[in-house]
Write a structure and sequence with these properties.
two-stranded antiparallel ribbon; 13 helices; transport; transmembrane; phosphate transport; membrane
Amino acid sequence: MTITADGGSPAAGTPRSKRGGGFDPTSLRRQSPRHGERVVMIVLITAALLSVLVTVGIVLSLLFPAISFFREVSLTEFLFGTRWTPRFSGQESYGVLPLITGTAWTTLIALLIAIPFGLGAAIYLSEYARPRVRKVLKPVLEVLAGIPSVVYGFFALTFVAPVILNDLLGLDIGTFSVLSAGLVLGIMIIPTVASLSEDAMSAVPDSLRQGSMALGANKMRTTLRVVFPAAVSGIAASIVLALSRAVGETMIVALAAGTQARMVGGPTEVGQTMTGFIAQTATGESTPGTLSYNTLFAVGLLLFVLTFVINMISIRLVRKFREAY
């Protein structure tokens, strides 16, 4: 064997890949173009851009008719007026507060129903239910989210108001009320709160539960003092998402709350929501381009802004209280 001057073998300075039988990571080269990756990347970019374009299109479709509306009606009158009669010839008034109060009442009642029942279902499914029971109950609970809202509306109109509120509870309520609409709306958004909260609580590491029980805490205290705070970001997001859906729901409130736009002072009164007015006007006989028709877009823009603010609050809450494990 020949030895070089530095005492090494002739192949000592030769790259391993050239000596054969080895692999040189520094000589990696793309052997063939990956057309599949390029196609997937183009599809993903297109999907992202499409969602942005759709959002921009929605805003523009609401914005230009709304601008035409606010050229004739002041923003102060629109936001703080207490009388909403845009289609009464000779007695037009464009104060949107009656619609806001109707929306607020139905949303508040819905949250009072959905939050306790939804969180209760989430705690049971996450902490107490056996795996077999969870596999059965969670899909059944989520079936409620798949029922068409028009079915919920007729349920409120034909059963909740006359049977439960009038006959069983003895309340003096007519066919339409924000109470019956809010109750059924709360039932509809229970799966939103329950499912997302259960996912957040199930994501909490078992080590936290085991550490709490090792210190002597029982199951309930561990759930309320350890698991619940650890999952609070996901729980808050589920509540805000349910709130957003309650504000934007149309068919239930259009059928059960009524069509009289007036200041709602109590849950047993008849009222109209923003979405109920939009549904009524969109299917009415208003002439496109008129002031009464443009009220549709002014109310829609206000609803869009409210929903956007709610979603921004949800994002802030999730980022603020997020726990990383």
